[in-house]
Amino acid sequence: MSNPAIITVAPTGPIATKTDNPTLPTTPTEIADAVEAAYHAGASVAHIHLRDENQRPTADLTIGRQVMDAIAERCPILIQMSTGVGMAVSFEERERLVELRPSMATLNPCSMSFGMGEFRNPPAAVERLAAKMRDLGIQPELEIYDSGHLDACLRLRDKGLLPERLQFSIVLGVQGGMAATPTNLLTMVNRLPSEAIWQIIAIGRPNLELTAIGLALGGNARAGLEDTLYLAKGELSDGSTPLVERTVRLVRDLGRQVASVEQAHQELVPLGHPALS
Ligand code: KMH
Ligand code: ZN
User: Fold this and answer.
1) DSSP single-letter state for residue 275
2) Tell me: the pLDDT tens digits for 78-120?
């Protein structure tokens, strides 16, 4: 029997606004409500981006604490804080977010073009953040948007900056990274270390097909408005919950189980971060 599928909800992201989808949660209360609904639908991890009062991405620690507290009041879901934050926020501000001690946080290993923007992750700064996460016992989720990003992660591991068992998000469909095709997904999955934990993040239109292929291959899955604003062509999703529910159906139709928070914690946070206690 295959491993239970861990579903991560990504309710906000760094780019969309309420103009793009009026149900996009941006305030701490809206984000926590969206996460709670996704938890009840089957998500066991919440990937969190923070926004200020003008909906702009922010690494403000007070807002971060408010969001984490509001989520913890509502449900025991694992929190994976985005250190990607948004293109206009400096790396120095972004990296401070790990001081909030989420169970997990993303680690973006390389700089790249990102649509018309520039996503800056200089090598020395990435090493510094990886070391900080290691020292704080925060599990990194490695976001790889191109095949060389995997090699960069393996070099970080060889320098002792990452845990032995690596956890990847294979991000497909960002303009500046790999295209969202089944061939690219298979190529990346075949190159991962055999014991690695992984999920696909498919941006935009191919989100459903590639999420289904990833689940069929034994990976985990991510769902939410960060990755696609639509449930079907021309049909905006009413928040992230319908996208999580769709992923739950895919998991079950494929004969797999949806991981509980406890199972996700056991799989993803091997050091036993005190987040659940
Ligand atoms: N929206 C993702 C493709 C992160 O969260 O660390 C990029 C991102 C990275 O937001
Ligand atoms: Zn993100």
Assistant:
1) G
2) 999 999 999 999 999 999 999 999 999 999 999 999 999 999 9
1 CA from centroid of ligand 2 (Å): 31
Q: What are phi and psi of 5, to 5 degrees?
A: -90, 125
Q: Note the pLDDT tens digit of each residue in 116-157.
A: 999 999 999 999 999 999 999 999 999 999 999 999 999 999
Distance 12 CA to ligand 2 centre (A): 8
13 lines ligand 1 (CB under 6 A): yes
How many helices (H) does the chain have, and how many strands (E)? 9, 12
Asked whether 12 lines ligand 1 (CB < 6 A), one says no
Mutate-to-test residue for ligand 1 from 8, 93, 153, 171, highest number of ligand atoms within 8 A of CB: 171
- Atom 1 of ligand 1: nearest residue by CA position: 13
Encoded tokens for 26 = 């941006």
Q: Which two tokens stand for residue 246?
A: 């769709």
Alpha-carbon Rg of the chain, whole angstroms? Answer: 17
- Any ligand 1 atom below 6 A from CB of 84: yes
206 lines ligand 1 (CB under 6 A): no
DSSP H or E segment with residue 244: helix 241-253
Question: Amino acid identity, residue 80?
Answer: Q
Within 8 A by CB and 6+ apart from 265, the residues are 44, 78, 103, 275, 276
3-state SS class at 80: strand
- Domains of the chain listed by start with CATH number: 7-276 (3.20.20.70)
Q: Is the dihedral of CA 271, 130, 170, 101 positive or negative?
A: positive
Give the number of other CB atoms < 10 A from CB of residue 204. 14
Determine the Cα–Cα distance for residues 217 and 220; give it in Å rounded to an integer. Answer: 9
